[in-house]
User: What shape does this take?
Amino acid sequence: MVISGKELSARLKEEMAAQVAAFPDKYGRVPHLVVILVGEDPGSVSYVTGKAKASEVVGIRNTTIRRPDTITETELLTLIDQLNKDDSVDGVLVQLPLPKHISEDKVIAAIAKEKDVDGFHPLNVAALWQKQDCVLPCTPKGIIKMLKAAGVEIRGKRAVVVGRSNIVGLPVAKLLLDENATVTIAHSRTTDLPSVTRNAEILVVAVGRPKFVTDDMVADGAVVIDVGVNRDPDTGKLCGDVDFAAIEPKASVITPVPGGVGPMTICCLMENTIECFLRKMQRAL
Ligand code: NDP
Assistant: This one.
């Protein structure tokens, strides 16, 4: 079974649109997401455009603030501070990566945790690891939603996550653990990676290398979630970290690239923005 993140996210966005349509009567306005884009990196421009389009579908107000890549760290931090204090703003997202002269850690930590729709703020990360209420990072959240929508039983399964980044590998491993999988995290220093991945009943790959996972690395009947977004060096087309054509026949469930995890990430960003808005409305009561 190929899980279409595109279809699932379209369905979820429709449901959110119906929810948001009731907000003006209930709360006097709709949620407001502000996205800051620094520079002109084509990948970042395309992600920011995707976020604006999804906001439109869901009925969320979206403001994209563009700044040149010559912006100083202090100027960016001042802008974030203004947005933190702006009561009409519910979510603030700074599109990554940032130019080298700006510390991403400082920028992420500067966003008010209540407006951190990406779920990257250290306090949200800490809350995730302590199983407290928090904003969940979008890609891991989307992956769990996809698994559940496909009817995959996570509890008790051997899950292997390849990749240990702060934004994907580590948090998705934690969410799988919270769903009672037995989780292994593999990385660039893992010895004999194929023997580790072959043991996976659920395999999540977030490495960033085109077609890195080959046929011999996947067990028959495994559930395979491909997070990677790469350019195929042969065709120039988008492709994942998993050799889809080779593995699709043997996997019980697999996600395509494009049209898999990517759309679910944006969908969860919309959900997080609504959550931040609703928490704020509750606090105001
Ligand atoms: P990072 O570069 O931050 O992390 C990559 C991870 O892969 C690291 O932990 C690294 O290990 C591991 N790795 C690299 N080479 C190997 C190897 N040979 N064997 C085993 N592990 C290896 O990437 P991200 O997590 O940010 O992103 C991963 C991919 O997912 C990218 O293609 C990115 O574009 C995509 N992505 C997609 C999203 C979506 O919505 N679809 C969202 C976010 C990312 P080590 O720690 O040892 O260096």
In short: The beta strands are 32-38, 61-67, 91-94, 158-162, 182-186, 202-205, 223-226, 230-231, 238-239, 253-254.
